[in-house]
Amino acid sequence: MEESSQENNKVWDLKLNKEDIKVYLKTSGGSQFNKDQPYIKTEMLFNAAFSMKKIIEVIFNPAHRS
Q: What is the pLDDT of residues 33-48, one digit of tens each?
C-alpha cells in the first residue's frame, strides 16, 4: 500500500507552497471524458474564525458561482 501511495504522490506536482495553502497539479491521466484534463488538489489550513459550513456554502451555492 505504501508503494502505491508513493507512486501517486509522484503524479502530483506541487505548484504553490505557502504556510497555509498548498496547490498541486496533476496533468497526466485525465478523466473518463478527456484524457488531457488536468486536476487540481489543494490543502488548506483554516483560521479558527472561519466556519467550514460557511466555506462549503460559498463553494456550492449557485449564487456565488457567477
A: 888 888 888 898 877 6
Please, how many CA atoms are within 13 Å of residue 19, restricted to the half-sphere of its CB? 1
Query: What local confidence, expressed as pLDDT, does residue 1 receive?
Result: 47
Long-range pairs of 31-39 with CB within 8 A, sequence gap ≥ 24: none
| Domain locations along the chain | 2-64
Q: Which residue has the higher pLDDT, 12 or 53?
A: 12
